[in-house]
């Protein structure tokens, strides 16, 4: 479809002035922005975080997490009678905890730094050897009666921030164009004005997918500020395929399960939004057999559509395709922890004219917020050639 300047004259649309068209909407190319729909539209992030400052061009919010329930050992356990283990972070445990390493349960009686004194073969399990970096799962607690008080480490609240971003587009028409009527579009001026909203939504969706926050040093007059999107905040569980399978980057069911397990280890569960490029989605769908794959009718929403759902041991994935996702990239998102926040909602305002025309513009200002990024994941650099 050809594009023209935003200064509409009586010469710019001669090809369909006398065409009889039953539905003017058919003239507009479809624009889908599925992620915006999933995160609640243009102000869906208003309830996601508690802002530590009033609405401003720079917004800040407080965030915190629960203490992790998974750690690792930093030295191998080479015999079945060793009564001490070395943890990556001894602050995660306290006397009375019982933990699981591989299939063995151990009970902690004392903690000194990162070294824990343990009773082996707890909870009816068998003592075993364990490799360096083996996962340690904190299962529960069984305190001794009459024991002295003990302490565990704690997390402290931190702050994060983002900047607002201005979106604007003007519209202008000459005095002659104002007098021309179109059979298919009785109010052509309003028609063109209304087209700007979905066009702007597409730009906002792209910004959420690709943008990094402007640096503090660049936040000065004369430089355009912009918000950071998903990639600004989703860092802990952002991995390349080689990190999950060093021998083969081809995506498979195990790789997807391992990806979901990353946020699961930080306490995430339930549903994830699997956002992926359409080409990659076609390949991923082929991985699932009838037992693992649940197909549902595609249901249109105002800005996109959800396709299917799959089940893993660590949570469900509601798959969604988006043209804006780069190929060989897969996001596992929690829409309830992210969204846009409006500083200035979109509004159309008439502007003064100094010539034979009328003009207006549509302007809005928004920022993006995201919290609990450890409950999400991102996979890059995978291959679909062999699927």
Textual characterization of the structure:
The chain has helices spanning 34-38, 188-210, 230-233, 241-244, 253-264, 278-285, and strands at 7-8, 58-63, 70-72, 84-86, 97-101, 104-112, 115-122, 135-141, 158-163, 165-174, 238-240, 271-276, 293-300, 305-312, 315-321, 329-333, 338-351, 357-370, 377-380. The chain has 387 residues and is of the alpha+beta class. It has two domains: 7-63 and 159-380; 70-141. The strands form four sheets. It has a seven-stranded mixed sheet. A six-stranded antiparallel sheet has the order 3-8-5-6-7-4, with no helix packed on it. It has a four-stranded mixed sheet with strand order 1-10-18-17, covered by helices on one side. A hairpin with a 2-residue loop joins strand 14 (305-312) and strand 15 (315-321).
Q: What descriptive keywords fit this protein?
A:
387 residues, alpha+beta, 2 domains, 7-stranded mixed beta sheet, 6-stranded antiparallel beta sheet, 6 helices, 14% helix, 33% strand
How many discrete domains? 2
The unreliable regions are 14-26, 300-307
- Percent helix: 10-25%
- How far is the N terminus from the C terminus? 35 Å
Query: How many H/I helices?
Result: 6
Strand content: 25-35%
Q: What is the total tally of β strands? A: 19
Task: Give the biggest sheet.
Answer: 7 strands, mixed
């Amino acid at each position: 479809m050809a594009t023209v300047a935003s200064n509409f004259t009586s010469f710019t649309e001669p090809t369909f002035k006398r065409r009889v068209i039953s539905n003017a909407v058919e003239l507009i190319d479809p624009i889908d922005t599925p992620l915006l729909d999933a995160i609640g539209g243009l102000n869906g992030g208003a309830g996601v975080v508690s802002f530590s400052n009033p609405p401003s061009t720079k917004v800040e919010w407080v965030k915190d997490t629960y203490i992790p329930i998974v750690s690792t050992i930093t030295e191998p356990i080479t015999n079945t009678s060793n009564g001490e283990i070395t943890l990556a972070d001894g602050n995660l445990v306290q006397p009375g905890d019982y933990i699981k390493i591989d299939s063995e349960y151990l009970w902690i009686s004392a903690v000194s730094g990162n070294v824990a004194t343990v009773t082996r073969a707890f909870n009816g399990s068998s003592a075993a050897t364990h490799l360096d970096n083996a996962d340690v799962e904190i299962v529960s607690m069984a305190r001794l009666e009459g024991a002295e008080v003990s302490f565990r480490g704690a997390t402290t609240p931190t702050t994060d921030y983002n900047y607002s971003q201005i979106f604007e587009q003007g519209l202008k028409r000459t005095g002659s164009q104002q007098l021309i009527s179109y059979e298919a579009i009785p109010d052509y001026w309003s028609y063109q004005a209304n087209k700007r909203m979905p066009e702007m939504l597409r730009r906002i969706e792209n910004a959420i997918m690709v943008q990094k926050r402007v640096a503090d040093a660049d936040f000065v007059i004369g430089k355009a500020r912009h918000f950071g999107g998903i990639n600004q905040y989703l860092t802990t569980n952002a991995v390349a395929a080689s990190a999950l399978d060093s021998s083969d980057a081809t995506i498979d069911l195990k790789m997807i399960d391992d990806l979901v397990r990353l946020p699961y280890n930080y306490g995430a569960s339930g549903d994830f939004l699997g956002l992926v490029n359409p080409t990659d989605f076609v390949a991923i769908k082929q991985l699932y057999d009838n037992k693992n794959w649940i197909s549902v009718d595609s249901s249109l929403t105002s800005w996109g559509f959800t396709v299917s759902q799959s089940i893993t041991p660590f949570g469900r994935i509601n798959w969604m395709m988006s043209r804006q996702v780069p190929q060989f990239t897969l996001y596992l998102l929690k829409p309830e922890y992210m969204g846009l926040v409006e500083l200035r909602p979109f509004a159309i305002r008439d502007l003064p004219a100094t010539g034979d025309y009328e003009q207006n513009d549509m302007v809005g200002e928004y920022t993006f917020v995201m919290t609990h990024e450890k409950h999400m994941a991102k996979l890059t650099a995978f291959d679909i050639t062999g699927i």
